[in-house]
Amino acid sequence: MARTTVQSGRFTARVEGDFVVFVIGMRFNKLWKVHRWFPVFTAMPRMIKELMTHPEKGYMGGRMMVGGRTITMVQHWRSFDQLEAFARNPDETHFPAWRAFNSRIGSNGDVGVYHETYRVAAGAYECIYANMPVMGLAAASEHIAVGRGAERARERITA
Question: Which of 93, 102, 129, 140 has its CA 20 to 30 A from that of 2?
């Protein structure tokens, strides 16, 4: 099914066990300094390609959004340990990109980067997708129809 195909009705997501939500982004602080932000901008697609071809690394999926000068990606990971292993491994795409950022940009203010990490306990989440394409946590896990006993947010969140 294409990710843009609208699924009529009400759906939710089901994830077995704990997982991690990782929010990562960059901001073009000085738009005219393309030579500074372009390498940062192009690093993420290479990382995602690597992760998509190696599901054993723990990346479940993600969604990129653009707002003003900021690009944000919300990612879902199987565990914090897998996310950290990817970030710290010098043989993976992230570590060299991070080192390059620190040596070329550092704290000069041309480009900003940020991330937030959230550990989510099994059942300690809820979501609803009404007449939407499969997206978000449902795209990263299991997209299921809302059934009896799951009509309200309180019923869907079990932890």
Answer: 93
